[in-house]
Structures are given as C-alpha cells and as structure tokens.
Design a protein that fits this description.
alpha+beta, globular, OB fold (Dihydrolipoamide Acetyltransferase, E2P), disordered C terminus, five-stranded mixed barrel, 150 residues, 8 strands, 4 helices, DNA-binding, 2 domains
C-alpha cells in the first residue's frame, strides 16, 4: 500500500516541540493551520475559509533544522506523508490528521528567508590519526607516497 503524499501551505500555530526517541533519533512536531483563500468578485475582497489543522512531525536532520528555523506564526510549505488517526474518548469519536514531513520550509510568497547550508561532519577531520592510518593502508596508493605521508 502506498502512502498519500501531500503538500500543505499554511501557518505554524504552535511552538515547535522537540523530543528524542529512546534510540536517540530527534523528533520535532508542531501544529499548522491551512485555510483556503478565495477572491470574491462581488465584494472585490479576499475571503478566508474555515481552517483545517494538522500536526506535522519531522525526524532526524529535518527535525534538527526545523527546531532552528521554524517559529510560531511562520508561513510554511510542508510536503510529506498524510496519516489520519481516529480514536474514541468519553463516547465521542475524534480524528487527528498528521503529516510526516519529508521537506518543509518558509513560504517565500509571503516573505524572505535566509538559507544556511549545514555540513555533515567529516569523519576524517574528527579523528585525523585514524584517517591517516586508513590512507596509509590504501593498497591503490604508491609505496613512496605512503612513506612520505608518514
């Protein structure tokens, strides 16, 4: 069964919350509101329809970047997998709609944003002696170059 992919455009209506799973995987969640806007030719004005609320969940690096970049009130575009969950409490049925985000960012039709690229740590730079040992043991490297590197 394939997932339902959606793209939502709306506003963040809650603070971004962070959590970490027991296995150390970061998670960021927030609520967003999506409301249709239509131009009413009779009144020559834009009208806003009823809002639909979604919970957005971002995992791993997307979660880390979301925590640093997204704030309550920001206009955002979210793409991800749609999930609907129903439950019952006190004889009342409830439904929540969630999106597991695969990409998200600011809605640039409503403002500007500054992008900062993050780099994954280079394992060779974290432990240089280990990187040297690996480089010296490389059988494709000429023997003279290996000796000079030591």
């Amino acid at each position: 069964m394939s997932d339902t992919q959606v793209t939502l455009v709306g506003n963040v209506v809650s603070d971004v919350r962070s959590a970490t799973t027991l296995s150390g995987i970061p998670l960021a969640t927030f609520r967003m509101a999506v409301a249709p806007r239509r131009y009413d030719r009779d009144t020559n004005q834009w009208t806003q329809g009823e809002s639909t609320f979604y919970t957005v969940a971002a995992w791993r690096r997307l979660a880390e970047h979301t925590l640093c970049s997204i704030d309550k009130g920001d206009p955002v575009v979210v793409t991800g997998k749609l999930r609907a969950r129903a439950w019952q409490r006190d004889d009342r049925r409830h439904t929540s709609v969630e999106v597991e985000a695969t990409a998200l960012g600011h809605d640039l039709t409503r403002g500007t944003s500054v992008f900062t690229r993050t780099r994954r740590p280079d394992p060779d730079l974290e432990n240089p002696s280990e990187a040297t040992a690996i480089r010296l043991a490389d059988p494709t490297e000429p023997a003279e170059a290996s000796a000079q590197a030591a």
